[in-house]
Write a structure and sequence with these properties.
The protein has about 100 residues and is mainly alpha-helical. It folds into two domains: about 50 residues; about 35 residues, no CATH class. About 55% of the residues lie in helices and about 0% in strands. It contains five helices and no strands. The radius of gyration is 23 Å and the shape is elongated.
């Protein structure tokens, strides 16, 4: 089945899960309905149940909460050059030794 909207499928499905939960449709019927409508593109049953419970507990947004994680800054051209130079000198270095030699945590 082709979905005629530009909204990402996972957000469409979350909206449908929210709607079903608000209408009093059971979790098991919601899971079957989502899987029937979206087929292979459906969220997993575990994900559908997770979102159903989130909405039962009062969540009203279908958008992911922002994640507060450390930015990846170690993969720079400068660090790549340091690692290559260190490996050119000793290609049997352990990862821990390489990290210390290059000053990359």
């Amino acid at each position: 089945m082709k979905h005629p909207t530009s909204v990402p499928l996972k957000l469409q499905q979350r909206c449908n899960i929210y709607f079903s939960q608000q209408m009093g449709v059971s979790m098991s019927v919601t899971v079957r309905s989502i899987q029937y409508v979206y087929g292979d593109a459906a969220l997993s049953a575990i994900q559908i149940r997770h979102w159903f419970k989130e909405f039962q507990n009062g969540r009203e947004t279908v958008v992911d909460k922002p994640r507060h994680c450390k930015e990846r800054s170690g993969c720079t051209q400068e660090n790549i050059d340091k690692v290559r130079a260190a490996l050119d000198q000793d290609n049997r270095m352990s990862l821990a030794s390489l990290s210390v030699a290059c000053g990359i945590p």
